[in-house]
Structure formats: C-alpha cells, structure tokens
Write a structure and sequence with these properties.
Elongation Factor Tu (Ef-tu), domain 3, 4 helices, 6-stranded antiparallel beta barrel, 4-stranded antiparallel beta sheet, disordered C terminus, alpha+beta, 25 strands, 28% helix
C-alpha cells in the first residue's frame, strides 16, 4: 500500500512539474503583447497669406424678367412665325389678333365724327344768323330813337310806345344769340368726343398687332395661326436671358454675414471649367423653416450670364470677408482652454519633455515622458487627418454652406507661399497664448502672440502600437521601418503643405 501511495505522489509531482514547465515554456516562446498609445506630431510654419472667409450654397438659375405675351383683344391669330429658341428684339412684331369687330368700330367712329362736324357747322351758322338779326334790331332801334328826338311836335305817348317796342325786340334777339352760342359749344364737345372715340378705335386696331416688350428668347409657343385667341391668354413666353440670377438658401447662422453688394462666384454643374462673377442683390427678410432649420433666400445677380440656361444647378460662393497678408496658422494647431487660445511652439532647447495642453494632467504628462524612453517607432510618412494639401499658392479650397444649417468657411491664397510643415522629432515645446482674427475651415489669422517663420506643433490623433515583452529583450513590432525615436516624436519623413 505504501508503495502505491508513493507512486501516486510521484506521478502528481511529475504532472505539476510538466504543467509549470509548459506554462513557462509558452511564455518564453510567445511573450505577452501590450498596447501603448503612440502620440505623433508635425510642425507647421507661421506664414502670411491672403485669407478669405466665405459662405457656400446651392441654387438654380432663373430669369428675373419673364414676359407672357398675350393678345389685347379676342380675335384670330395671324402672322405668327416664331418658334421656341428664337431670339427677339424689343419692339419686334410677333403676331396679329385680327378682329372684324374692331375694324367696324373704326368705321362707325369715323361716321360719328363726320356727323358731329356737320352739326357743329350748322350750329355755328345759326349763331351767325342770330348775331346778324340782333345787330339789325339794335340798328333799327337807334334810328327810331333819333327820329323821335327830331320830331318834337309829335305826342309824347306815341314816342314812348315805339321806344318800348324796340327794347323788347332787342332783348328777344339777344336771347336767340345766347341759345345759338350754347348749341355751338355742345356741338364742339360732340366733335371732340367723336374724335376721341375714333382715336380709341384706331388704337384698338393697331393693338391687334402685338410687339415684344423686351429683348430675349422665346421659351414657349402656345398657339398656331388660325387659332381663336383671347385677350389676356398667353400665346408666347419670352425670357430676358441677361436677367438670369441664382437664388441661394443661406443658413440663419450665416445670414447676418451676407450684405448687399458682396461679390460672389458661381459655378454650374452643366458648364465645366467656367466660373461666373456675381453680386448679392437681394436678401430675404423672412426665412423659411424646415426640420427646425431656418434659411433665407439670397439672390445673386450674374455679371455675364452667357451660356446659362434656366434651371441649371449652381454652386455659389459668397465672399463675406477677406484680408491680405494675414499671419496665419493651420486651424489644427489651435488649442482652446477656458476661453483662451494657445498654440504649441517648437522649442530649440532640449528639455527632455513633451509639450502638454493646458488641461493635461500631471499623470498623463508622466506617462508620456515615460513612454518616450521605450524606443517605439511609427511608420514614416504617415500623416492621417492632416490639413488638406495646397498644390498652388493661388488655390482656393471651398466648403459648402447648405440648407441643413452647416456652417462652413473657405480660405483662399494668392501670391503668397503656403503654410509648410514637416514631420519631425519633437523633444520640447512651449505653450504660447495668442489672439486671433479671421478664420476659416483651414487657417486662422493670428493677431498677437506669434511672428512669421515660427514653427507651431500639431498633435496628430493617437494610434495604438502593439509591443511584445520577453524575459531577454524588447522587440518592436513595426519591423521594416528604419531608426527609432522617443515616444512623442514623429518620423523624419517630409510633409509639405502650401
């Protein structure tokens, strides 16, 4: 029994020994892997460039001046030769809406005028006769009065009777003259009225022929010759192509930046390699709300709208503010904390520490300092999430401002060298408080705190680097990349940004 028990103990010890040996052997062959955060940096030079802040939106082309061409009278369509796409000039004859009734009205009005003229002539003749009779009566009365004075021998009663009869006769003739004068005035009024009606009738006939009120292009033809057309019902549509504009919906957060007279650039999806110039002409006072987003219509006039068709989709950039030779840094370099603004400036002193943000804890600083001694590597040339490269000092990068309320901005440079940056090993840096001015999607103007040529540090997003530990050595899993660097440094590969 003791022999069996001893064998069992020995067998157990052997199993335990094999287990421990296998464990430590596995650990020796397959060391533990750990993941550490690898911080990366690049530097960018503080430079001067022309800085623009703008708002972008989309819209479609429309004509501010469109005319529906309608007949002035009911009639039969004649003389229409135009078709869609034809160009017309202001005052050009388009068609005639012929009406027999209007022509007859001219004849009737002419006859009425002739009759009125005859009546006037007769009234004037009657007036002349009445005036002559009055004059004769007055002359006879004067002669009678003189004769009575010469014949003093006659009785006084007879002289008085003759004088009374003469006075009564003169008053009657005067009344006839007044009536004749009134008839003449009435006849003159009728002649004037007849002339006016004749003029109206002739104008109506002349208006049967319709002319174009504007110069433009025919965009619709609704009838053909021989059709019965009605007054006020459109036969043609003419558009003034020089009045083409674009209506853009601007977000309520940006609308206060838009002012009348601001310059704009317009690009159309259907017209490649051409940019049109424009000006802000109208800004809506009342907004339109949809899905809790309010936008305001802004009308942009186009300086030379040649080649643009109604309804074409347009991308509009409105320049709201600009500055020449602004001192700028990449937007990614800015650090904001407690209402203040900072940047990390590359230091020439080797302090053995890495720059920290204003709100970075002491513990995180210690961890970063510690990790920088572990000889980790990151791939050379890696530059994820960097600012977009500029290929020309005059290239403009635009960002859309759409109706969902996105606030975007644009920068542009001309005649200036771009901001340049390169990945480098950074062992030290210092925080510098700055004051800023204009800013857009890519660049921020620095008004105080930096000078041209200084290098600011941009922290790239951290990546996880897997390392393996063994009892004998530390091995880097990023094989294939030459050279090591402290934690917090960046590979030495070049990166340029205009």
């Amino acid at each position: 029994m003791k022999s069996k028990a001893l064998k069992a103990v020995i067998a157990g010890l052997i199993v335990i020994g094999v287990g421990f040996g296998g464990y430590f052997g596995y650990k020796a062959i397959f060391p533990e892997k750990s993941t550490v955060a690898s911080a990366r940096y690049i530097t960018a030079a503080v430079t001067k460039r022309n800085l623009e802040v703008s708002i972008q939106g989309t819209g479609s082309a429309y004509a501010a001046t469109t005319k529906e061409i309608t007949p002035n009278n009911n009639g039969t369509l004649q003389g229409l030769t135009l078709k869609v796409g034809d160009k017309v000039t202001a005052g050009q004859k388009l068609f005639t809406s012929y009406s027999d009734e209007l022509n007859s009205a001219v004849t009737t009005a002419q006859n009425n005028l002739n009759e009125a003229n005859i009546n006037l002539k007769n009234a004037q003749s009657d007036l002349t006769n009445a005036q002559n009779e009055l004059a004769a009566a007055q002359s006879a009365a004067a002669s009678s009065e003189k004769a009575s004075e010469d014949n003093q021998s006659n009785t006084g009663n007879n002289n008085q009777n003759n004088s009374a009869q003469s006075t009564k006769s003169i008053e009657s003739y005067k009344l006839d003259v007044e009536k004749a004068e009134s008839s003449v005035e009435q006849a003159k009024l009728k002649v004037t009225d007849a002339k006016n009606k004749l003029t109206e009738a002739k104008n109506a006939v002349s208006k049967m022929t319709v002319t174009s009120p504007i110069a433009g292009v025919v965009t619709a033809v609704n009838n053909v010759n021989g059709d019965s057309v009605q007054s006020g019902k459109s036969v043609l549509t003419i558009v003034d192509m020089s009045s083409i504009k674009v209506k853009v919906a601007v977000d309520e957060l940006d609308i206060t930046k838009v002012k009348l007279g601001q310059k704009a650039q317009i690009k159309f999806d259907a017209i490649e390699d051409k940019t049109y110039e424009g000006t802000v002409e109208q800004i809506a006072e009342v907004g339109t709300s949809s899905n809790n987003v309010t936008t305001y219509d802004v009308v942009v006039g186009i300086t030379n709208p040649e080649g643009i068709k109604i309804g074409m989709n347009a991308n509009v950039t409105i320049l709201v503010e600009s500055k020449e030779n602004a001192l700028v840094i990449p937007a990614e370099a800015l650090i904001e904390n407690n209402g203040k603004k900072f940047v990390r400036v590359e230091s020439t002193e080797n302090t053995g520490t890495t720059p920290t943000a204003p709100n970075q804890s002491t513990e995180s600083q210690d961890e970063t300092s510690k990790s920088s001694t572990e000889n980790k590597q990151v791939p050379q040339g890696e530059n994820t999430n960097l600012p977009k490269d500029e290929t020309s000092s005059q290239k403009t990068a635009n960002t859309n401002s759409n109706v969902q309320g996105t606030r975007n901005r644009q920068y542009a440079s001309s005649g200036q060298s771009g901001v340049s940056s390169s990945q480098t090993s950074i062992n030290a840096g210092k925080l510098v408080e700055i004051k800023t001015g204009l800013e857009n999607e890519n660049y921020i103007e620095v008004t105080e705190g930096l000078t041209e040529g200084q290098k600011v540090i941009i922290t790239l997003p951290q990546t996880s680097t897997t390392t393996t530990n063994s009892s004998k050595t530390n091995r880097n899993t990023m094989g294939g990349f030459s050279g090591g660097m402290p934690m917090g440094g960046a590979p030495s590969g070049g990166f340029s940004r205009d």
